[in-house]
Amino acid sequence: MRLVAIGGGTGLSTLLRGLKEKVGKEVEDLSAVVTVADSGGSTGRLRKIYNVPAPGDIRNCIAALSESEDVIRELFQFRFKGGELDGHAFGNLFLVALTEITGSFMQAINIASQILRTRGEIIPATVESVQLCGVFSDGKVVCGEEEITEYGKIDSVKLQKVWIEPKEAKAPIDAVAKIESADMIIFGPGSLYTSIIPNLLIEDIREAVLRSPAIRVFVVNAMTQPGETDGYTAYEHIKVFREYTGIDRLDAVVVNTRMPSDQVLRRYLEQKQEPVIPDIARIAKEGIEVYAEDLIGEKEDFVRHDSYRLADLVVEIRRRYGVFS
After folding, report:
1. 149 vs 133: CA distance, rounded Å
2. Domain-located, residue 177
3. Which residues contact 158 (CB under 8 A, 6 or more apart)?
4. Which residue from 158, 164, 111, 107 is spatially nearest to 133, judged by alpha carbons?
5. Nearest 5°: phi and psi at 299?
6. How close are the terminal C-alpha atoms of the chain, in Å?
7. Are residues 61 and 122 in contact, defined by beta-carbon separation less than 8 angstroms?
8. Between residues 3 and 303, which one has the greater pLDDT?
9. CB-based contacts of 83: which residues, under 8 Å, 6+ apart?
10. 306 within a domain of the structure (yes/no)
11. Is the pLDDT confidence value at 324 over 60?
12. Is the pLDDT of residue 118 over 90?
């Protein structure tokens, strides 16, 4: 199976961590198309100085697919504390340095992937320095992924629309080719407006998905996100995705049915996040096959999809659609 995962944030790297174990078995070729619109933390500071695409989500995906020794992986994810380097991840600095040396963000990713021996290819949605912008219910226009997330936490506002600037940003030819030749394309899990949709706002990516005969699978986030998806059910995630991207055909949707523990749930509710309601019947009425499973694990008090359970389910979905190529 030739598989392409599209997204960003912690959701995509969580999925890739599980799929890595399938490479060479059920998965013949694994690629990740990753958003580069992040503007926060180490990534945001480096973007302002060097005018490069956001390296943070790329770094996380490289680490997730890495087969290198633990110390190398930990080095890539290491964050400095104190001084001018405070908060910077070593991997971000490494990718920016390689981009400056080679003159190519793509080449920097490829070299880093070789060093960390990744079991799959990581491709940025664009190599241009793009910015995510959004307009809220109070009419406020906010640019920057982190800024959108922070502004969305205000009680009285809700995100209504997002777009990227420049709107004419192009995708790497490698990303288009991988999508067009894929057997399966997975969207998510991840923040709907700031991790998944930004990739499809790039016309080349969206058109490649529409041309591809691949099975299309959407993995719904386990929790809502303040100011973005407050009160959204699983169906509403799908509805917004289809409206924004024009990708009407989804073959399968994956939803989590497990509730977090009371202790973890209370902490999320304090942050105005709640479990996404798996309204399976509404999705099924759209002619979409629904896979409702116990998919989350709880580590370090965070609600995350279990990498290996999710990867197993992806393989099961592929089998339902035919024999592996």
Report:
1. 11
2. yes
3. 136, 137, 152, 227, 230
4. 164
5. -125, 135
6. 6
7. yes
8. 3
9. none
10. yes
11. no
12. yes
> Is 325 a domain residue?
no
In a domain, 30, yes or no: yes
How far apart CA 128 and CA 153 sit, in angstroms, is 29
C-alpha–C-alpha distance, residues 256 and 76, integer Å:
31
Q: In the predicted model, is pLDDT for residue 207 greater than 80?
A: yes
Q: Name residues whose C-beta falls within 8 Å of residue 243's C-beta, 6 or more positions apart in sequence.
A: none
CATH code, domain carrying 80: 3.40.50.10680
In the chain, what percentage of residues exceed pLDDT 90? 74
DSSP state of 102: H
Q: Report yes or no: 318 and 324 within 8 Å, Cβ to Cβ.
A: yes
Tokens describing residue 52: 């490069």
Omega before residue 198 within 30° of 0, cis: no
Q: What is the mean pLDDT of residues 29-44?
A: 89
SS3 220: coil
| pTM of the full structure | 0.94
Which structural domain range is residue 239 located in?
2-320
How many folded domains does the chain comprise? 1
Closest of 250, 179, 261, 183 to residue 220, by C-alpha: 250
Report the length, in residues, of the chain: 325
> What six digits make up the tokens of 129?
């320095």
